[in-house]
Amino acid sequence: MIYLDNAATTLKKPDIVYKAVLDAMKNGGNSGRGTYGAALEAANTVFSARKRIAAFFNAERANNVAFTSGATEALNTAIFGLVPYGSEPVHIITTECEHNSVLRPLYKLESQGRATVSFAKADRLGRINPDDIESLVRPSTRFIVTTHASNLTGNLIGIKSIAGIARRHGLVYIVDASQTAGSIPIDMRNTGIDILCFTGHKGLLGPQGTGGIVVRDGIHLEPLKTGGTGVKSYSKSQPEEMPTLLEAGTLNSHGIAGLSAAIGYIEETGLLKLGKKEESLAERLYRGLSDIEGVEIYGDFSCYERQNSENPEGGGKKEAETPMQGRMPIVAFNVKDAESGEVSDILAEEFGIASRPGAHCAPLMHKALGTEKQGAVRFSISHSNTESDIDEAVDAVRQIASEF
Fold first, then answer.
1. Do 52 and 81 belong to one domain?
2. Are 335 and 397 in contact (CB under 8 A)?
3. Domain containing residue 256: CATH number
4. Both 356 and 213 in a single domain?
5. What predicted TM-score, i.e. pTM, was given to this entire model?
6. Cα(32)–Cα(40) distance, rounded to whole angstroms?
7. Residues 218 and 78 in one domain
8. Tell me: the pLDDT tens digits for 352-382?
9. Looking at the structure, do residues 245 and 189 belong to the same domain, yes or no?
10. Regarding beta strands 195-199 and 172-176, do their DSSP bridges make them parallel or antiparallel, or are they unpaired?
């Protein structure tokens, strides 16, 4: 099988990840629930992972990192944590690029009368203008929440510009890094991110069921859940200190061990090196599909043209300072008027190529692109893919297009 659904989950993990999970299952007890060897082994694993993640995202300290089951739980924790029950209704700004992990919590707050939500619109290429976000700010605005990159188009959003808007107006800025964490550098302090939500099983190459939320000093969140913590057990309320505030219940220390090992692999191999390979493969895919009659591609790919024009005299592309300057390694497309699920089924059954069709949990993005009814077929690349994978995918789509 040629696996091109890495925006959903990376299928191939480094061997060190499998080993770390197995070792933790064999040797680790329950973190924070005892002082015997196995419990301390788990606690050390968790704390080491906190330190590694804090450094990876340039957070202020390890205790600012709380573990979750993934980005969905992290985003729910951030969004609901900033609008506790009983507070005055607030105004929230987001974009049409968002995943349902952002949209549905916001819709729930609206339905409960706890918030009103404004959306910065995407253009026909799926792009957001940060100036549009600033124009939506009101006296009652509490926070801005955006994705870092669309899971449908692969377009990056200018989070540093948006963070500047949040600073100017005294707002909290939440970033959904589901698609970018592990693929491009994220520097919370340099960028101005207040709350970073991430998942472990995509670009970070970790196990499913892992992820986290990183909260800047000075921001308080009401916990999404309360319960056992292993400390202050006689208190009727959740301890106020991070990360315990947001970590009720037994942590997935087995998965956290795998996530930490995965980040170690990225650091050792080089995030920029891995990202540049993904970028090269994505450009190859885009150019191949662009040559096929009847194939429509969605998103902004002008960054490829800019990069090629920077060094026009026989030197190929100028090296970018960071990978993925303009987008993630995602190419979404349709073949003529064929339903996206039909195309994806043919790719899987006749060519052994895994893709993702349909709505991708991004309904407003499809509305902006005009693909609400048809959906879209999405190819998403990892550094584990090869040029041969890409060429075979292009050939498969060419054959499918010739038959419709």
1. yes
2. yes
3. 3.40.640.10
4. no
5. 0.94
6. 8
7. yes
8. 999 999 999 999 999 999 999 999 999 999 9
9. yes
10. parallel
